[in-house]
User: What shape does this take?
Amino acid sequence: MRDFENATRSDWIIDRALRTVIGTALALPYEKRVRWFGAAVERFVAPLAGYRKRAEDQLAFIWPDMPEKERKTLARAVCNNFGRTMIENYSGADFSRQIEGASVAGDGLAPLAKAKEQGRPVLFVTAHFGNHEAPRQALTHQGYKIGGLYRPISNPYFNAHYEKNMLDMSGEVFAQGRKGTAGFVRMLKQGGMGTLLFDVRATRFPEISFMGKPAHTATSVAEIALKLDALVVPYFGIRQPDGLSFEVAIEAPIALSDPNKMMVDITARLETRINENPAQWFWVHRRWG
Assistant: This one.
């Protein structure tokens, strides 16, 4: 958890504003809540915060031939999904009930069950696509306990309840950094399961091709997996046309080879998902700098 001594008054004000908006949304019935918050982020928050323009710019960077009207429409859909994901992940038991009925399928299910039986560490790898917490929640309903390693939010006030919210979903969560990573690895060594998101820009790591452009990509997943002989399973929560339900894809494991090759393979899995459903990836992130 972040040190509050370094927090600013602006951090406190922003956190209180966000708490108010989130609290207002949580007072609504679940389906109305998700739709309302998605629309609020798309129409008001994203334009003011510059998220919508960033999404448009990055879409133009990757698909320069896309017509402007299509690009703007897609960017709005991206921001709507971003908002829905945020409020879903604050909805606790309501989100859990929604995910309980999700279809869970894929070639990774059998290897996953075998790893659990053997006590072999499992590293799930996913991205900011659809709702990245949906697979963890769905597998929790099937009896799996899955922790996580996450990047703390710079605002320590907001990060405090963001972290607690993730912890309430499933297994223990750890903040990125020497201490957090050590705790995460220790959990895995004991035969645990954990999830990592790999699709944010990490400038101290090498560049690999992502959507046809070089992008700094953390190799942490591969390095940890090779060290522990962990099963590496990509999984994705794919939002369905109703905007509320999900299909959870548990993909075939990634072969343990070398860090660069593994990250190329993992990235290719995400690229396939994005090409199928471009509105579901968080183009609001500064992925290519």
